[in-house]
Amino acid sequence: LQVLLVFNKEDVQSDSLSWAAERIGYKYTSVRSPDAAIESYSLNHQDIVFIDHRSSKYFDAESLCRSLRAIKANDHSLIIAVTKKYPSDKEEPSILPLLKAGFNRRFIETSNVGCCINEFLQLEYGEIRSQLKLRACGALFTALDNVNDLVEITNQDHEIQYVNHGFERLTGYTSEEVYNKDSRELSKNDKNKPDLHETITDQVKKGKTWEGSYYTRRKSGDVFPSFCRVIPVHGLSGKKKKFVKLQSAMTKADLKDKNYRIHSDIGVEILLLFFYENVAGEKFCLLILTGGIHAGLNKRRESAARIHSMTIEAPITKVINIINAAQENSPLTVAQALDKVLEILRSSELYSPFFNQQMKDEDPMTSDLVGGLVSVSYLPTLIYNVIFNKVFIECSHHTHLHIPSSPTASLSQVPETIQSVLDIETDWSFDIIELERVTDNRPLVFLGLKIFARFGVCEFLDISEDVLFNWLTLIESNYHSDNTYHNSTHAADVLHATAYFLDTDRVKSVFDQFDEVACLISAVVHDVDHPGRTNAFLVNASDPLALFYNDVYVIHCCNIKYIGYCRESYCAMRNNIIDMVLATEMKQHFEHCSKFVNSINKVISAEDETSQCSQDSTPVSGKLSLPENRTLIKRMLIKCADVSNPVRPLNLCIEWAKRIAEEYFDQTDEEKSRNLPVVMAVFDRKTCSIPKSQTSFIDVFINNMFDAWDYFCDLSVLMTNLQENYLYWKEQEELKHQEESETDEELDSRGENQEEARDET
């Protein structure tokens, strides 16, 4: 927000408001005269204006307010009068003259910075947000007025409340002529079926959209056909308060075209959704209106029609079209069932599990895990976009400025205590926690040097070991060391698991060195700059990351510069890294696992059965090496590496469980202290059962995924660990439950004894 402070001189009050604005993060401008205030407001249109009204000696505050209100586009600014504090024994003067002069409210002088901060926050979360919504509504109606299609909004009694310019142009009526008129009577004609309006009413009463052919009568008496969609809009009470009617004019050829319904209204539908989701202010709206709403609508329709006629079609679109065709000749009950099928298919959550209320009540731990880690559909991969924007660009352009060369940049110069731990890094029992200790919380640099050397990364990228050391140091410095879980030790752990998987026979038969290098780099950077909070928390807290990436669905990718690397290879490497890092986002966990099983493991299974029957030993690596299959394998590889804690040796599994629980506890504590919605309420440090959290996590996310991964690359040691760890957590869960039961019984017994003692007394 922008703030304008108008005080004739600097005093305690102006300083308090300035400090308050600065502490909240608002941009503020201080001026000393009415002329400077008018000039600043004309240029910047600040959201909040404070005018000193305590004395008329230097300028007339009310005259200044009227002058500001005379400036164009002032409606969305709040102008506040700073007034004197009156003694409690005197009657306060009326604020009516202030309101009539154009002030929105008054602010009684105070030097308390906390009071000033609270005043700003009340303004932002109250009137300013309401003004922003009104501004967005104005932009939306401006958009509707500039589309070619007819848009009509009625109340629940079908009385017209709004029509756009398209309606006026095509019907000949002005908005004044149709306001509060019955929409059904206005368009009544012999072309529509007698029971059409009853059918529409029945449909919208159920809260469903009606769509179909509709004839509209012009003012001249002529009738023209259109494709119409009537959409119910729910009011505050949940009842249908408004109906929105969208109509696209049709030609005779359109009436004969069975496909017209699919593509004729797509321009309007996309337009409305676009404005509803993205309008953020007048400048943005102006840009859109001049660039493509009115003039470009027909072009978009032509493009949509052209795309529809192409042979290139997404599989889900084919399925939806087949179901639509089947609905036309189906009985009503079947058509209604297919409606539900289409509703599910059009969802973006096809692979996410569904928990009904009973399941949530019976197993809140599992419900909270899925809700907290998976169900954040409106936030597109916040954390991972920052990886490329922040770290790689810095590394590629400023490495020599940030990280000087170091005598330990060579593996041969690594201290013996660290080298002894690294000697068994190829084994699954490798202790990453011990490496964290001996490296003084710098495990990623040293493990990275060792693993990258083993896979020949420096030779492949044509870089020196010093450059690799500097890059690893920079990456590690961008992990948050105060995170108990999402820190550089976790990144090093994921790197170790990735290298271990790359060494398996099946993966080696499919991947080349390019794939290996992409996997290793992705493991190193996959959680860089992670704030130690879930996506849902960032959204609820209005974190700058959430606010930015909720509005801009663009991946700001890396400028990794590899010496001697051609443009084509660079782009391929960049795309691979982006894809794998985004695969670690739990939002798409079930989708990635399902695609892997259906596209990779079923191929292996089918080939195994064929080879057994025909005694043909032809390897399946040829099919698996196809680009699309290698992509699925790489996603699964880094996903398993990212959450491999439950398949680690028991001592490491327990340590990681404590660390992730502590990070979730910290989040819950912060949510409560800031009065935010608690994303995962079960992670309360006073009541949470860590064993239960682990068994739930294994049941929901780990078992099926590692079963599939084990089938692909044979990981018997890991699966044995998983079984043993699960049994351990189950035993701990039962012990904790038993302790809680004994405690409850003991408390009940104490209560009974006390009651008996009271009775005896």
UniProtKB/TrEMBL annotation:
User: Which annotated residues bind AMP?
Assistant: 486-490, 527, 642, 694
Molecular-function annotations in GO: 3',5'-cyclic-nucleotide phosphodiesterase activity; metal ion binding
Residues of the active site: 486
Q: Residue spans with biased composition (Basic and acidic residues)?
A: 748-761
Enzyme's top EC category: hydrolase
> Which residues are Zn(2+) 2-binding?
527
What protein am I looking at?
Answer: Phosphodiesterase
